[in-house]
Each structure stands twice: as structure tokens, then as C-alpha cells.
Amino acid sequence: LIGDDHLFQKIDKNIFRVSATSFFQLNPETAKKMLDFIISKMDRYDIGIDAFSGVGFFSIPISERFKKLISIEIDKSSYKDLLRNIKINDSLNVEAINADAGKYLKEIDKANLIIFDPPRKGLDEEIFKNIKRILPEKIIYVSCNPKSFVRDLKIFYEEIGYDIEILKPFDFFPQTYHIEICAFLKKR
């Protein structure tokens, strides 16, 4: 095979470099709708964290709402794209960290908002342990797996004290049973 090992995807005013092995939302039209929805429901914050940030799909567009945004990504390819995308989009308040989100959250003392868009398996015990310690005012949780999403929301509600403010589905794959779900959670 010959050709570029990456492509550029434009969503609204943001440009994303996406390498062949990096993850990116496959439906740009619905991705824009989801981003617009999330941004419209956000306030301004001092410190934010984008765990499982990938190439910066959330970090870049929402960075204007933060004084500082920490973007955590474990995958090397996605992390390299994230660094490039921070520069391309002049998102100077975004700090990129190449690490496992659960392990790196141990280093965080304070955050006003954390956004999670985890793999299908959802969040693990290490993440929840750190959330109990950090206790951000708000959490945005995006999931492509309704089963792990419900399991994790139950933990947020029953064990950590978060209520669901908003819950909205997004149909990234029309005429299939796959769905992306976005929830805004607020600390009681």
C-alpha cells in the first residue's frame, strides 16, 4: 500500500490529524452534533481532565471552556496525533499526557470537570477510586456500550454521589443497534 499514513478531519473550526492506527469518530455529522450539544451544556472551569482523549476529539473543542485541560491518552499513535492537534488548533491550555488514565488520575488532586469516553469495557475500579478522591463538580460520560454505561452510572449514583443531569443518545451508526450515549453527572 502507498499513500499517507494519516488523514485530516475537520469538525466545525477544528482540524484533527488522525493516523491509520488512531481512533476517531466515524460519523463526522453526528460527531459535530454531539460536540455542539456538550459545549452548549458546559460552563467555564478552572481545571478539566479528558481521560481516554484519543487524538483530542473532545479536548480541542472544549479547551476554550477551561483555564487548563489535561488530556490523557495511553495509545502512542493517538497521543502523537493529540500533540500535533494541540499545535494545529493552537490549544495552548491543553496539556497532553501519555499514560493510562486510571494510573495518572492518582497524580491529580483537583479537577472541576472530567470527561470520560472509555473503551467498550467502561471504567475500572482504579478510575472510580480516584474519582472518589478527586470529586469533580461535574462529569461528562460518553459511552458506546449501553451495558457498561448503565453499570458505571449505577456506581456513580450509588457509591460516589452523582446524579444524572442530562442523558442524550447519538445515533452514529444509523440502521444498526449501535448507539453512543452522553450523560452529564453532577455531584450531590
From TrEMBL:
BP GO terms, sorted: rRNA base methylation
CDD domains assigned: AdoMet_MTases (cd02440)
Catalytic residues (positions): 144 (nucleophile), 144
MF terms (GO), sorted A to Z: rRNA (uridine-C5-)-methyltransferase activity
Record-linked Pfam families: tRNA_U5-meth_tr
Keywords carried by this UniProt record: Methyltransferase, S-adenosyl-L-methionine, Transferase
InterPro entries given in the database record: MeTrfase_TrmA_AS, MeTrfase_TrmA_CS, SAM-dependent_MTases_sf, U5_MeTrfase_fam
PANTHER family for the chain: RNA M5U METHYLTRANSFERASE, TRNA (URACIL(54)-C(5))-METHYLTRANSFERASE
Name assigned to this protein: Class I SAM-dependent RNA methyltransferase
Organism of provenance: candidate division WOR-3 bacterium
